[in-house]
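re the bet — no i am not wrong, look at it urself. input seq straight from the record:
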Amino acid sequence: MSLRINRYRGFALTVLIAGMLWPGGGCMRWHAYPENWAGTGGRPRTLIVYFPYEASLVRDVAQPIPNYISWPDERIIRDFSRLSALGVDGILVGIRPGDSVDRFRAERYERLFELVVRHSDWPRIAFWICPEPGVEARRCSLFVDWLTDMLVQYNVAYYQVEARALVVLSPLYTEWPVHHPALDLRFTARNRGQWNWQPRTPKQLAESESSDQLVVYAGYLESLREGHAQWAIPRRGGRTVVESFRNAVESAPGIICISSWNDYAEGSFVEPNTLDGSRVYDLLRREIRAFRTAAKR
């Protein structure tokens, strides 16, 4: 007796099974994103934190692939092309207030603006203000002047919220002495009650209350003992960031922040690396693609 199999169904079943397998073995549950985002105020926007310097250069846990020690044009183009392929809406670029008065670094950031303007398909830039010990009000004022000057020159490069450039302060900033009407300044310190930047497991995110903004982590390093990493939030080969992203979407925030592209100090990196290859990046890219596809239906 012959068995006739519909080719389309066979192909669809193959794709479904392949999509349910995690790289390296194991299974994941199939996840369907809601399609009618228009009825819930629109889909959440996705941002990812990116470090040109500082946290990206602490390499106790892993090395990036390919490795780097500086921030030349070649790295900017490679990183932002990868981030564009990831599918995020904006990039929170790490910067310290003092970088605006450091001639070399200020030139590199201005070069980033030039490249983002040139590449219209790249995500737009917001800023993540990194901690700077002993920073004074005068330096903050100079920094805000620099930010607004860049906004005038490279307006289309900025990620904007209601026509204001988004600027997010590290949790270590409980105060900021200078404000400007062109900047949308967001605190992440707990005492400010604005954005929440507390590391959470996927389960904790699933149990969290509705919020305008949520942050998801690819992992979170507790300590490094005798060369062995102790994880407060294990990376789990990409499972952590994907499950966290899904649970964040279920809470329907306005913005989902991903921490991060390359924070090797905290262990929350998504960038291809020597610890888990491109697995975390590939899984998150596939998840964001599914999320964005559902939002277009």
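see?? The first strand starts at residue 45 and ends at 50. told u. also The domain at 36-296 is CATH 3.20.20.80 (TIM Barrel). so pay up
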